[in-house]
Amino acid sequence: MSDESVLLDIEDGIATITLNEPDRRNALSQSIEEGMLDALDEIDDSDASVVVIEGSGGSFCAGGDIDRMMEGLTEDVPLDDRAKDLEDGTPETLTRVFEYHLPTIAKIDGPAVGAGANLAIACDIQVASEEASFGFVFRQVGLSVDAGTSYLLPRLVGLNVAKELVFTGDIFGAERAEEIGLVNHVYDADEFDEKVDELAAKIASGPDVAFRHTKRLLNEGFEKSIEQAMTDEAVAQGIVFQTDDHHEGVEAFMEGRDPEFEGK
């Protein structure tokens, strides 16, 4: 395997980003964060329609970079500068993932803890193997939540469950994650890769422009009134009405066949 911290493969409309520091369980080092941002930039210029994020070596992502954390304890850095570093590192990467214009799938095999769990839930869809484990373990190192926990986690599991997860810092398995709505699907090892591939291929075959507006509208929905949501949906629909994919979808429906969208 390559010694690059982040690998990118684009094939058949599916972009796969692989975190590739298995000896560190793919913790969010500076090199991984920069590699992810570079990969997303490269995907911008490709024909990809969906992004899958995974980890190598049996771990999804073990959270924040302990080395950077130790540097913060030993170096005499002003508090304001440390806060700025926190804002510019992992939060920037996870925000980019959350706001990315293409649908994103977290393919979670092995541990996803701390900021690594947040990377998973910053994606649009979470698919886990039976070997996956999760934990919002900030309390274990005497920290409050960060990397978007307060925004992302309650939206998936509800406020009371989110509070329990962060106050206890418990590590829990894929079955519990599915029960509380943290992940969409759990598959055993024998079918895990195949099921993720099927899901990614189905999404990749969809109408890109419509999906781009749909994702934005859904992400913004919690902050809007029903009236504003419907107005924004109507505006977006007026744009999508003009796409070739919409015309293809209507023609395919009338002809009783599956549509063949081209992303325009």
Features:
264 residues; alpha/beta; 2-enoyl-CoA Hydratase, Chain A, domain 1; Lyase 2-enoyl-coa Hydratase, Chain  A, domain 2; 2 domains; six-stranded mixed sheet; 12 helices; 15% strand
Task: Explain what you see.
The chain has helices spanning 30-44, 66-74, 79-88, 90-99, 115-122, 149-157, 159-168, 174-179, 189-204, 208-220, 226-240, 244-255; strands at 6-11, 14-19, 50-55, 104-108, 111-113, 125-129, 133-135, 172-173, 185-187. The chain has 264 residues and is α/β, with parallel strands linked by helices. The chain has two domains: 6-204, 2-enoyl-CoA Hydratase, Chain A, domain 1, CATH 3.90.226.10; 208-255, Lyase 2-enoyl-coa Hydratase, Chain  A, domain 2 (Orthogonal Bundle). The longest helix is centred in the C-terminal third of the chain and has 16 residues, at 189-204. The mean pLDDT is 91.
Entry summary:
The protein is α/β, with parallel strands linked by helices and 264 residues long.
